[in-house]
Write a structure and sequence with these properties.
By secondary structure, the protein is α+β, with helices and mostly antiparallel strands. It has two helices and five strands, in the order βαββαββ.
Length: about 90
């Protein structure tokens, strides 16, 4: 199993160049976004970031009441790079 870089709460992250190229998003707005990792429950492969999810209707009001962190966007750690650090996933 791959070991992902530590992305503790408060870490500034962005989508990696490799991920953006593989999804054809090089010229779009996603490449310029920077998020802060939140202290929200996620799996060891995902982080919650400070952007509300695009489809809030994915969950019921009861589910949001039980877990308020569901309102935040989650991104796979493998698709992120820490802002200000060199990362091989950003190589052309």
């Amino acid at each position: 199993m791959a070991k992902f870089r530590d992305m503790s709460p408060g870490t500034k992250v962005r989508l990696s160049g490799k991920f953006l190229r593989s999804t054809g998003q090089i010229s779009g707005g996603e490449g310029s976004k920077v998020w802060t990792v939140l202290d929200a429950p996620c799996s060891d492969r995902l982080v919650a970031v400070d952007e509300e999810r695009a489809c809030p209707e994915d969950f019921t009001p009861e589910e949001y009441a039980a877990d308020p962190s569901l309102k935040w966007r989650r991104i796979a750690k493998a698709n992120l790079t820490v802002v200000g650090q060199l990362d091989s996933r950003d190589d052309p």
